[in-house]
Amino acid sequence: MPLFAACSKRDLQIISRHMQVLAVPAGTVLMREGDHGDAFYVVLDGRAVVEAAGRRAGDLGAGDHVGELALLDPAPRSATVTAASDMTVGVIDARTFAAIVRDVPALTGKLLAALARRLRARDREAVER
Questions:
Q1: What gap in Å lies between CA 71 and CA 117, rounded to an integer?
Q2: Chain centroid offset of residue 55 CA
Q3: Which residues have a Cβ under 8 Å from the Cβ of 32 and sit 6 or more positions away?
Q4: Rounded CA separation 7/4 (Å)
Q5: Residue 71: is its pLDDT beyond 80?
Q6: Is 42 left (phi over 0), alpha (psi -120 to 50) or beta?
Q7: Do 118 and 3 form a contact (C-beta atoms < 8 A)?
Q8: 4, 49 contact by CB (below 8 A)
Q9: What are the tens digits of pLDDT across the range 13-62?
Q10: How far apart, in whole angstroms, are the C-alpha atoms of residue 12 and residue 42?
Q11: Strand partners, 29
Q12: Domains of the chain
């Protein structure tokens, strides 16, 4: 999983110890656009659909992550994410996330890089319109 690629084995043990693993049935809304966000999700198995402003914005599969913006900035969710199949997700809440970032410095750089890629993609989309 690219987000955790720079983490050591010890770092990964810390992260996995704090991550709650949930089985999510197809059709479940993981997050709703406009709602307050307080959790970060890692797709361990299954598929999800991402919609923003009523339009399909993408798909998520094993190894993808979503929700990290809400952990860094308390603004409302920017998209709705719905399970397209039965899924297994890892969930880290905001309080736990803050502790993990302190204990696993490699995660901070990876997270910032992922956010930068997402921002660049949105900038390209805005220019193309």
A1: 17
A2: 19
A3: 77, 80
A4: 5
A5: no
A6: beta
A7: no
A8: no
A9: 888 888 999 999 999 999 999 999 889 899 999 999 999 999 999 999 99
A10: 13
A11: 82
A12: 2-123 (2.60.120.10)
Q: Position of tokens 């999800």?
A: 48
Residue type, 86: D
State the residue for tokens 């809440």.
Answer: 93
Predicted confidence band of residue 1 (pLDDT cuts 50, 70, 90): low
Q: Mind giving me the DSSP string for 16-50?
A: HHHPEEEEE-TT-EEE-TTSBP-EEEEEEES-EEE
Residue listed under structure tokens 């809400």 = 70
- 107: which residues sit within 8 A by CB, 6+ positions away? 3, 4, 6, 7, 11, 15, 100, 101
